[in-house]
Write a structure and sequence with these properties.
about 350 residues
């Protein structure tokens, strides 16, 4: 039986909003240890900005900014995920002076500028979380398509900056898991269908019978271990996100990835109203508009209408997500985040 379109759309919106909420919540404590978080915040559970980036309340970081840039590119190309379009979108995002940017993303986008080649060379050193954190628009745009096509689309966007097997595995797992949740599958079903096969194929991703993954780095394996421990073992949207960001480390990204999964799993009604109110309004509207456009039926007129509806709010949100008062003097090719280990 086909899933109810209204229910699918509601879960798609929840996934996109969940990504932004997790990003904004986690950014406050990014690069802090759990002990430092406890000292300064007790249990961090409110969206209030600050952190090492000195964010405004409700402001998001590169996780949401790159996802919105990717979603806009997909809508502008009638639902197609093309490497060159993705590379151009990410390059435009970087030129807008984002509030932070990962080392691997920056390096391979500069390579794209210099060569015009949208696919980075394969590298064992590019196993960061920067491609996984932004994969949600691909999951929404390819919903209902064959699994092989979903996997290929994940790799097309990922290889612009992260051409790495472990990164690919995480991206594909996330996109397919989100799609399962959109159909109404339970966490138990997704555990059998997606999580067990991921760990079997890539044992490094094992997260059970292991210590709690605290202070996770930008390495995609540590990121996913923290996310899976939170999503699988902690019930409810809010509890899941509070758990994962209080682990510290690359908390905006663990929050964003856990948020997209938990949003798709638990649905719109599970998102805390106070968090939605605190989130930057332009970001909130852009996430909802892109979710509606990306999940739309893939007829050309529907894609064109959705693209027109989404471009303006997405541009405004991406612009606001990309700026910070202290960044005016920085160059277009990087920010102070390039000097911080762990951003990838």
């Amino acid at each position: 039986m086909s899933p109810d379109p209204a229910a699918v759309l509601a879960r798609a919106e929840a996934a996109y909003l969940g990504l932004a909420l997790g990003d904004a919540l986690g950014a406050t404590v990014e690069f802090m240890t759990p002990r430092e978080i406890a000292h300064h915040h007790g249990v961090h559970r409110e969206i209030g900005g600050g952190g090492w980036l000195r964010l405004a309340p409700g402001q998001v970081t590169d996780d949401t900014g790159m996802a919105l840039a990717l979603g806009q590119a997909i809508l502008a190309h009638d639902g197609r995920i093309e490497a060159l379009a993705c590379a151009r979108a990410f390059d435009a995002w970087m030129r807008a002076r984002p509030v932070d940017i990962g080392n691997t993303v920056r390096r391979n986008l500069i390579r794209f500028r210099n060569t015009g080649e949208p696919e980075a060379p394969a590298s064992d050193h590019d196993a960061g979380n920067g491609a996984a954190m932004r994969v949600l628009p691909v999951a929404l745009a390819t919903f209902g398509r064959p699994e092989a096509e979903v996997r290929a689309a994940c790799r097309a966007q990922a290889h612009v900056t992260h051409h790495n097997a472990m990164s690919d595995a995480a991206c594909e797992f996330l996109a397919l898991s989100v799609q399962d949740f959109l159909r109404g599958d339970s966490l138990q079903q997704v555990f059998r269908q997606r999580i067990r096969p991921l760990v079997a194929a890539h044992p490094a991703y094992a997260f059970r019978d292991r210590p709690r993954r605290e202070n996770p780095s930008g390495w995609v394996v540590e990121t996913m271990q923290a996310v899976l421990q939170a999503v699988v073992d902690v019930g409810g949207f809010e509890h899941c996100l509070v758990d994962v960001v209080n682990r510290g480390g690359d908390a905006d990204t663990t929050g964003a990835i856990a948020g997209m999964l938990a949003g798709a799993l638990y649905g719109r009604e599970a998102l805390p109203a106070r968090w939605l109110k605190a989130l930057d309004p332009a970001v909130r509207e852009a996430c909802m508009a892109q979710a509606r456009g990306l999940i739309a039926q893939p007829s050309l007129p529907a894609r064109e209408a959705a693209s027109q509806a989404c471009r303006a709010p997405a541009r405004e949100a991406a612009s606001q997500a990309c700026r910070a008062p202290a960044r005016e003097a920085e160059t277009q090719t990087g920010t102070s985040a390039d000097l911080v280990p762990g951003k990838s």
